[in-house]
Amino acid sequence: MDMYEKIDTAAIGRVWGRVAPEAPGDLEERRSEDLRAALRGAMDRARAAEGMYSLLAGKTRGTGQSRELSALSREEAATGRQLQTEYFLLTGDTFAPAKSRPSAPYLMAALRDAHAAELESSRDYASLAAGLPDGKLRETLYDLSARERRHAQALRAMIARLMK
Q: What CATH code would you report for 36-163?
């Protein structure tokens, strides 16, 4: 009998688990799953924002705000497509964001919430990008972060105009 046939690999695994609870491969797999989950969440938020801006554009039909909100809706749709592309290239899988059913009974409150959401998304994209090595995904996330900041600025300006 070969000495390797006598080695209890399960026992070694248990001991190793106590010494180094997270093997490097496990850590890398968890990071990879965290990234995939973050991208899926970002796609869901982009779809929700697209729907919200479309709803608000309809509520403000015939005004300058309607055109601006329609443009924001189109940009959020483009963001979603960019994220879907990156997700597919990363995973080989497709992901369809959840359909959203936005509700916005009060325009100003919805604009305020959208402003806060754009700022949060900008921070999230930048944070996610900072944790990645150089590459196209990192570049895309930084670009999306800048886009979300521009959206927040546009919403802030719109709110200021409506407050006059």
A: 1.20.1260.10
Residue 118: closest CA among 61, 63, 34, 42: 42
Distance CA 160, CA 13 (A): 61
pLDDT tens-digit profile of 107-154? 999 999 999 999 999 999 999 999 998 899 999 999 999 999 999 999
Domain segments of the chain: what residues? 36-163
Distance between CA atoms of residues 69 and 56, nearest Å: 7
Cα distance between residue 12 and residue 10, in whole Å: 5
d(CA 82, CA 87): 9
Q: Which amino acid is at 104?
A: A
